[in-house]
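Section 5: illustrative case.
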């Protein structure tokens, strides 16, 4: 239906804007879980309020945790104002948890449910039934949990919580998703013997996201051993102990900054993303390097990250294994470049919100592109593109990638732009602001 198609605005001039990107999905959902498992109440400030984080908040509420909106808390912490106050309570069922298509919810909450007393049923969007979860299910069973999944190793499933988990050492193949490791570590301090997660298999993707888990656990008072701190490769260890109720300020979502920075790169404009952290575990920080290699330049200023393009875009050969969620926007930019690109290390994207490799190849080619799938990525040969409908397969990052193309390719229509609400509410308004806000 045509009304479901959003005509992506074209940039008539180089963009020149300062943008505020909403909070990080990954940090918000980790902060909520850690606050829910803490010994005292806490705050999650400047949280992302999007489909994925609202599902996380609702899931925790279903388990007995208080997650309250607060707009006027007065701790004086920078970033005060919009916040969630999290009130940990006894975890219990029976409960039903809707995970939507949120990887963080479907993977981070079953371990929390194993700590609850009662039956916790999990289900979600049809796609959630296809996404890898067996590693978490098997690991939890090995750590003492009882889980019914009809033998599928996937959703829907029920965790029969008994109020606690023995924990200990467990082996998991996390090559399909780093979230398996993060899930077990986040609840690990509350397992009787803590947890030691040993990965076996092909390399784990998205390592910065595991780093984020480790850093946020430590900030909440947990003792964590990790490979990058001199520990054994592919082994993470969390000591049992109480987590602190804290006041956490969520950083802007740097992966969701990708389309805004791309706008500066491809139109030869300037975009400043406010509050870009000087140091962060977010994979989106690597956009500075990727988009500089593709032809732009950037500097960190008092205001944020100021990124400037020349309008000329170069192709790139990049292994995106650690930063897979940046792929859709990088691929869109690569399709507009002056030389071919090869994006590799991202076979696991076939099991993300949709099969992202197939979707990107199909949709870029439908606009006149020349994109082929490789075993572990995409080969992109730039061609003159034309307008048309860009299908998004209920994938927020496909939609933002299409908006990037639309800036310089007239007539791009984005099917179901509302799917951006997974992590970027009000995207069409933010995008209009980018184009309207001339400097
Ligand atoms: O832990 C997290 O917050 C995430 C980890 C990554 O998942 P995978 O390791 O499954 O790619 C990433 O792609 C996802 O968007 C968020
Ligand atoms: C892979 C992603 O999400 P999820 O947290 O659902 O895995 C993503 O946001 O790119």
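Designed sequence:
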């Amino acid at each position: 239906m045509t009304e479901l198609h959003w005509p992506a605005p074209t940039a008539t001039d180089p963009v020149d804007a300062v943008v505020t990107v909403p909070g990080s999905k990954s940090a918000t959902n980790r902060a909520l879980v850690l606050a829910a498992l803490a010994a005292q109440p806490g705050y999650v400030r400047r949280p992302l309020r999007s489909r994925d984080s609202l599902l996380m908040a609702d899931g925790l509420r279903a388990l007995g945790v208080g997650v309250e909106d607060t707009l006027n808390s007065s701790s004086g912490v920078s970033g005060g104002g919009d916040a969630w106050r999290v009130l940990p309570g006894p975890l219990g069922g029976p409960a039903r948890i809707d995970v939507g298509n949120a990887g963080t919810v479907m993977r981070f909450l079953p371990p929390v449910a194993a700590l609850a007393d009662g039956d916790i049923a999990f289900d979600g969007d049809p796609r959630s039934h296809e996404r890898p979860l067996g590693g978490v299910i098997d690991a939890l069973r090995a750590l003492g949990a009882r889980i019914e999944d009809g033998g599928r190793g996937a959703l829907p499933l029920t965790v029969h919580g008994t109020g606690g988990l023995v924990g200990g050492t467990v082996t998991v193949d996390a090559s399909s998703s780093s979230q398996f490791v993060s899930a077990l570590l986040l609840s690990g301090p509350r397992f009787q013997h803590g947890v030691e997660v040993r990965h076996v298999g092909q390399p784990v993707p998205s390592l910065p996201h595991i780093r984020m888990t480790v850093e946020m656990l430590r900030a909440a008072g947990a003792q964590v051993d990790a490979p990058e701190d001199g520990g054994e490769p592919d082994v993470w260890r969390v000591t049992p102990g109480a987590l602190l109720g804290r006041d956490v300020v969520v950083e802007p979502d740097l992966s969701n900054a990708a389309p805004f920075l791309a706008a500066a790169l491809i139109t030869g404009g300037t975009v400043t993303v406010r509050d870009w952290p000087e140091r962060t575990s977010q994979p989106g920080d690597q956009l500075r390097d990727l988009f500089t290699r593709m032809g732009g330049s950037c500097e960190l200023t008092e205001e944020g990250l100021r990124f400037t393009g020349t309008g000329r875009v170069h192709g790139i050969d990049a292994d995106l294994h650690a930063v897979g969620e940046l792929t859709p926007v990088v691929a869109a930019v690569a399709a507009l470049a002056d030389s071919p690109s090869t994006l590799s290390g991202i076979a696991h994207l076939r099991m993300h919100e949709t099969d992202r490799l197939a979707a990107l190849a199909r949709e870029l080619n439908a606009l006149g592109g020349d994109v082929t799938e490789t075993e572990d990525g995409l080969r992109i040969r730039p061609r003159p593109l034309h307008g048309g409908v860009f299908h998004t397969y209920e994938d927020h990052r496909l939609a933002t990638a299409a908006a990037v193309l639309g800036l310089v390719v007239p007539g791009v229509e984005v099917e179901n732009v509302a799917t951006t609400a997974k992590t970027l509410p009000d995207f069409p308004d933010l995008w209009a602001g980018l184009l309207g806000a001339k400097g």
